[in-house]
Amino acid sequence: MHDRPPAYEGSDGHPYTVSLEVERTGDLRAPYHAYLVFPRWAQSGVGIVGHAESPTLARCRTAEEAAQYLSALTLHEVQRLLEEALRHAAVGEES
Fold first, then answer.
1. Is 1 within a domain?
2. Residues 6 or more apart from 2 whose CB is under 8 A from it?
3. With contact defined as beta carbons under 8 Å apart, do 86 and 11 qualify?
């Protein structure tokens, strides 16, 4: 139906998809950290041209717990987190 993967439109006008990420860290109490990566697609949808990411959203004892946390996020929450990531990236570019 579309010429590109399903996407969120960021306030910057670019299309984004979302990737749920769980990473093992050195944190002995909660070794699995959960966060989102937002690949930014070219306007043509042909490829990824950048990305934004959320801060750590959850620190968990197991990878399954971290993945479950991310899977429970609503589409509205993901959109809000994308906008926060874009604002954070814009502030970083200004520095």
1. no
2. 45
3. yes
> What global pTM score does this model have?
0.85
Write out residues in the chain with pLDDT < 70, as ranges.
1-6, 92-95
H or E stretch including 66? helix 63-71
Distance between CA 71 and CA 62 in Å, rounded?
Answer: 14
For residue 65, how far is the Cα from the chain centroid?
18
Sign of the torsion angle spanned by Cα atoms 63, 65, 70, 71 = positive
Domain tally for the chain? 1
Nearest to 12 by CA among 93, 79, 83: 83
Residue 13, H or E segment: none
* Residue 77 lies in domain: 8-90
